[in-house]
Structures are given as C-alpha cells and as structure tokens.
Amino acid sequence: MKKFLLYITLTSLPGQAQEINFEQNWIVDRDSLVQRKMDLKEFDLQGKDRTWNLKGIEADKKEYRSRFLEKEETVIGMEPCSRMTYEQTKDGLKVTATEDNLTRISYDMPEEWLHFPMKQGDSIRGYFHGIGLYCGELFMRRFGTYQTKADSTGKLILPNGETLNGIMRLHTERYVSAVYGDKDMLRKGVPTYTVDSIIKRMAVDTLMLHENHYRWFAAGYRYPILEAKVITFKDKPIEELLFYCLPEEQELLASNDVNKEVREAVARSEKGSQAGDETKTRGENGFCYEISQNDYSVTIRYQADHYEKITALLTNNQGIVYQRLEKTGLAGSGQIEFNTSGLRRGQYIIYMNVDGTGYAEKFSVK
Fold this sequence. Notes:
This protein is mainly beta. The strands form 3 sheets. The protein has a 12-stranded antiparallel beta barrel with strand order 2-4-5-6-7-8-9-10-11-12-13-14. It has 5 helices and 21 strands. The protein is elongated, with a radius of gyration of 24 Å. The chain folds into 2 domains: 2-15 and 260-365, Immunoglobulin-like, CATH 2.60.40.3080; 29-254. Strand 10 and strand 11 form a beta hairpin. Residues 1-17 and 273-284 have low confidence and may be disordered. The longest helix has 15 residues, at 257-271.
C-alpha cells in the first residue's frame, strides 16, 4: 500500500471541469462574442491522435459578432443575418425559433441544442418540427431528426501554436425535410405533425438535407472555441463553414468566475505537483492529511482543528472530473474514499479545498 502526505497550496476548483453543464455553459444575458471564419478544407475534422490543429490556418480579418439577450427562460442569439431563440433551463437549451434571410420558423417540437450535463459518450436524440414562412411569401414546414453526441475529447492547437487541453467535441447530425405551400395556410391553420407523420414523410423525401454540426468546448470557456458545419445534398457538399472564437474573447465575459477557476485548475494540472513521500509543513488552517492507495481505491485520511467544508475532486491531467465528494463541518479526524476500480490506466490528480485553502497530488492507476 502506497502512502504520501500532501501540503501543497492551490486554489479550489468548484464544480466539474470538462463536462458541459449549466454552471459553466449557460448563456448569459448581454454576452457578446467575435468569431472569425477559417477554411474548413485545411482543417482535419476528426483530429489525429485526438488533437485538432488550427496552426497555419489563417482566419479572415472580417469579424462576425454574436450577441445574446436573456429574459427569464428565453434566450435570443443574434448573428449577422440570422437569429435563434432558445428556451434555457438548468436541464439544457432547446431551439424554439429560427430566422435568417430566407426563412422564419417557430417550432412546436423543438430540438434540444444542449443538454446539461453532458460528458464524453453521452448523447441526445429526437425529432423537430416547426412552421413559418419562406422568403416571406410561401408557407414552410421544416422537420426532421437529430442526434447530438459528445463523441471525443482531446486538445486543440490554436493558430498561434498554443494548446488548449480539456477539449470535448459535440457532434450534431441532422436530417432535414421541408414542405412548402401557399402563404394563406398559416392563416387558415395546418395539421400538426406527430412523430409518426415525420417518419412517414421522411421515408419518401428525395430532397432531404444532411447536416453535420461540430462544436469544440474547452474546459473553462462558456461557449465553443471552434464550430464547423457541413451541409450535403445527395452526398454532395453545398455548404462548409468553420468559425473560430479567440479564447481571450471569452475570458473577458462577465459572470465568468467559475470558468476562470476551472481554467486555473487546468493550468495547475498541466504543471503538475511534485510532493514526495516526506512530511511537509502543517497547513496554516490546522489541517493535514495522508492518502493511501490500493488496487481499488484511494483513501484520504485527514486531521483538522476546525473546518466548515472539504471538497475533494478526482480528475485526469486535462482537468476532466471523474468524482466529486464533500464533507461538512466538524473538527477532528475523518476520511474520504474514491473508487478507482473503473478508471483506465494513467495518471490522475486529487484536489482538495478546505475552507478556501487547496491541496493537490498526482497518483497513477496501473
């Protein structure tokens, strides 16, 4: 059994790192982002060895600004020439309306755009349906199927050569059908489509579009750093887009304290810590502990003069949180145990925050 004593001071990491969740990824009123277009043909969507590389790909000088307005559970996202309306709750985001230069659609069967929380391997799927106008003159019914999956994690090399770790990619695959008719159909009323209606109509649709939308989220950033969209018709691309958002843009956003602390925690995990087997100086708050490890678990045994709350996190080197445990309020001794039997081989980090003072150490699963 391996034992080691820890007394290394770090700040705390509230919540989970690279996981899509409400605390870190909810849309905030009056947020504004700048994106720059890049050439998708120069970019490897799949990423070699789970590394996506933007180095050497030039971004357009033209800026595309997005703005968000939020009132209660309704969020409006405004981009050049388009607008999306969402219903936002602690469970996720649903698309309730879309508008661009050609179409204006309201959805009675909305697509779930984000689900909180999501981690690697999670997926959501369903059907969407809405009605509206095409070119302001024709009735339009838009419907189809979608699936969004957190299909990969890794790192992103930025155009300046710097690397962002703790990346998780969401891939949305969508099949889209549309029906058009006289504008007066909106006034007269149209039959509501059920899921069965959508399935039957799509089975005979020869003009269906196939959309693939990719979003790369980084630990400690509210919105995607990178987005790509590919639309094909009968296996031929008709639209290919890639947009990059400078990380510095998101670091300036208001109400961003949680993400700031996550970014700092990821940076600490990259630097690592080098505590040895020897005993270090006792913490200023009268707290000390030791960790023991066996084939199935890691146990933290601690002694404290007094504490209000202990938060312990088990993460990997990219800041992805696997387990989070808490203890509240008594002086004396106690223990916290993490089950490691389901972890893959590799290096992991335990963070502890005790009333604002932090501790950390690496250990390995072999």
